[in-house]
Amino acid sequence: MESKFLNKISFSLLAFVLIFRCAYFNTFYNAEKSFESAQKIIENSQVLDDSKIPSEAQILLDKTIENSKIVIQKYPDSNYIDKAHLLIGISLFYQKQYELSIKNLEKAILSTDSKISIKANLFIAFSFLRLKNNDKVFFYINRIKESELDKESLYTYFLIKAEIMENKESFQESYDFYQSASTTTTKESRKNFALRKLIKLAEQNEDTESEIKFIEFLIENLDDLNKIKDLKIDWIESKIKLELFDDVIQDIDNIIEDPNYSSIKPKLLIYKARAYKDSNRLNLAIEVLNDLCDNFSKKNETSEAYYILSTISLFEDYNLELAKTYIDKSIDERSRSKYAKKARFLKEKIDKFEGLQEDYFFYQKNTIDDLPLKNEMNMSIPQPAEIKLDSLLFSMGQIFYFDFNQIDSALFRYEHLLLKFPDTKYKKQINNILSYHNDGFKLETSNSLQQNIDSLTTIRNEVFNLKTNDSKLKFYKDMYLEYADSISLFNYAYISDFYNYDLNEAIPIYLKIQDSIPNHPSIEFINNRLIDIKNNIIDLKRLNSQKILLNSTFKMIAENNYDSAKTLIQSIEVRRTEQIYPAISHLIKKLNDYNNLLENKNLNSDSVVYHMAEIDFFDFDNKDAGIQKFKYLIEDYDSSLYINQSKWVLNNYTSKYNYENINFEFVDTNMVFFDNPLKKINLDELVRKNTLLDELNNHFENRE
After folding, report:
1. For the chain, percent of residues with pLDDT exceeding 90
2. Residues 98, 127 contacting (CB under 8 angstroms)
């Protein structure tokens, strides 16, 4: 009986040990699997080190950290402790939390397992490299013997070396290390990552030949057809940069009928046509473009094809009517495409030229002296007295020369202008152009040129006796009324713009001068100023709208409408260089995390409750919801690992709670609030400013 009893005890103890080992092994196994999956996603994603990592990888890294911490906290005597510290450290490195990464890796570096110690050493060096602490980088990297590294550690070693050389702008050495990394690793995802780093570095360095070579390496190594197609386009564009047009045409001919490339056939045909056009084989380019237009419709590529046909008709054949036909077709194909916009701009140039031509023939028959001069203030329409035949001829020549690429036609008009108007104010400019094209040829004109004194200039100078902006504005207004003086009209707009800050007054005048007096002495300033104003209106409205939409996102979060909040914030147009980008990027990540937590099958687990509380409290500006969840966790989950952290948060960030008996071994004291960029912003004022910007923009919209 005693023997049977002892056997039962032994069996029970054995079962307990096996269950215990199985529990912590499973926890660590889950941490490892999450880490491996996250690493693969990062290495296969389109983003590289300077961008945010995919949200799916973020979640997996969080799981890695969470499970590794459980192993460390619950099973301190486990054989997996060092590896758990290593996984936490590398996960934090990928999350760009470099200082925290170093703290955890410093524990793993003490491991008796040389592989763990070496990897910890490598990622400490990598973290210091990202922190730009070069002394520490070289301290840790010099502790490593290259001969002691296995293939995957050697891969990391080469990446570090490559990045060091990249920072030093020793690009060839950086290339060599990235290539060594790609050939060392046995993992396809890592090989591809190193090759993509090579492509990006070559592109940044404007080393197109190397970029082509690296793209070819990566294409050979890929199975993903979509990525191959994207790379093939990059390869073609790089070849075109180097003017290797025959290579482009031959490669496109080799793949154009391949079913795998059918989805990008229109794009390939465009590149083929461009290659023919840029190598001056216009008939072949036209043939390809017509083939594209006959077989496809309503695509960006067909809009581009018609636009290219219009430029050939205009610039090569000078067939205005055919060019306008193609322009209309380009716009009809895709009215909002890039090339439809270009087509509209080209049409404006043609319309402007034809308008000048009509004006010239009209005013040639009706001299300026015969036209009526209205002595009334019209801020928007300059008087006919401003129209000069030599100005019209010169403007037509400029359009031929600079816009239509019709040099011979331009030169003919310049020569005609000098013969017809020998005293024209454009004489010096025209002679310089003719001399450049005709090897010193200069047309003979009268040498007895009288320099006429502009009496209006003398009158205008009286403005310097006036003190206030209002008196100057009245003076220029009266000058325009009495003399139809377009310079006074411009001065009126300039003072309104830069001294009275009244763009509503200035913009209409700038626009009408631009439309009606193309040869105004200040036309270049007006053109540039209108572009600046238009761009500033667009940028300011966009920046204000970012904040308004972000505020609406927080309102949706407060109403627990997380899906709509995510959709709204992802619609915000923001550039990576703008101050608000980190806030929007952070909030998108937290919304993804929160939605994933909500979808968790075990919604009431302490882990899920805690992480939802953390996001509510620190990131969503929803402190009441966060406090409620922290209290719920403290009161209902006696054995939770998150009780100590929850107590610490409520003690430190609220005034109502004062929990005792906190075990600080399980507390992360680095937690901080999300920096909400809306804290000091008056949203009503933003809405008001956007209304004013819309009023300014209406001047441009009404003009169009």
Report:
1. 13
2. yes
CA 359/CA 369 separation, integer angstroms = 15
Binned at pLDDT 50, 70 and 90, residue 34 comes out as confident
SS3 676: coil
**Residue 681: C-alpha distances to residues 557, 606, 678, 684, 685 (Å):** 19, 37, 5, 9, 8
In 3D, which of 27, 57, 618 has the Cα closest to residue 610?
618
Please give the torsion angle defined by the CA atoms of residues 430, 434, 437 and 441, in that order, rounded to the nearest 10 degrees: -160
pLDDT in tens, 482-519: 777 778 888 888 888 877 778 888 888 888 888 888 77
Residue 402 in tokens? 């600079």
Distance of alpha carbon 447 from alpha carbon 436, whole angstroms: 22
- Domain map of the chain by residue range? 366-438, 455-521
Cα torsion 460, 463, 465, 470 to 10°: value is: 170
pLDDT at 7: 52
Residue with tokens 């390496």: 217
Q: What is the pLDDT of residue 439?
A: 46
pLDDT-derived band at 29 (thresholds 50, 70, 90) equals confident
CA 88 to chain centre: 32
Rounded distance, CA 167 to CA 402, Å? 43
> Phi and psi of 394, rounded to 5°?
-65, -40
Residues 523, 384: Cα–Cα separation, whole Å: 18
| Residue partners of 481: CB distance under 8 A and separation at least 6 | 375, 376, 377
Residue 296 has pLDDT above 60, yes or no: yes
Check if the beta carbon of residue 385 is closer than 8 Å to that of residue 365. no
pLDDT tens digits for 660-704?
Answer: 788 877 777 776 677 677 666 677 777 788 888 888 888 887 765
- DSSP structure class, residue 370: G
First to last CA, the chain: 103
Q: How far apart are alpha carbons 645 and 652 in whole angstroms? A: 11
**Which SS3 state, helix, strand or coil, does residue 138 take?**
helix
The closest alpha carbon to 53, from 592, 659, 686, belongs to 592
Instruction: Look up residue 262 and give its DSSP letter.
Output: G
Helix (H, G, I), strand (E, B) or coil at 340: helix
Gap between the Cα atoms of 350 and 320, Å rounded: 8
What's the confidence (pLDDT) of residue 672? 67
- Is the distance from CB of 565 to CB of 616 less than 8 angstroms? no
User: What is the maximal distance between C-alpha atoms in the chain?
Assistant: 138
- Residue 169 CA to chain centroid, in angstroms? 24
As a whole number of angstroms, the distance between CA 307 and CA 310 comes to: 5
pLDDT at 505 (0 to 100): 87
Confidence of residue 473 (pLDDT cuts 50, 70, 90): confident
> What's the token pair of residue 483?
């003399």
Predicted confidence at residue 452, as pLDDT, reads: 27
The larger pLDDT score, comparing residue 503 to residue 317, is at 503
CB 434 within 8 A of CB 415: yes
Rg (CA), the chain: 36
Q: Which among 61, 146, 142 has a CA at the least distance from the CA of 104? A: 61
654 contacts 624 by C-beta, under 8 angstroms: no
Work out the average pLDDT over 310-332.
85
**Could you write out the three-class secondary structure of 188-224?**
HHHHHHHHHHHHHHHHHCCCHHHHHHHHHHHHHHCCC
Q: What is the pLDDT of residue 622?
A: 85
Q: What is the DSSP letter of 601?
A: S
Q: Do residues 386 and 515 make contact, with C-beta atoms less than 8 angstroms apart?
A: no
Q: Whole-number mean pLDDT of the chain?
A: 80
- Confidence band of 19 (pLDDT split at 50, 70, 90): very low
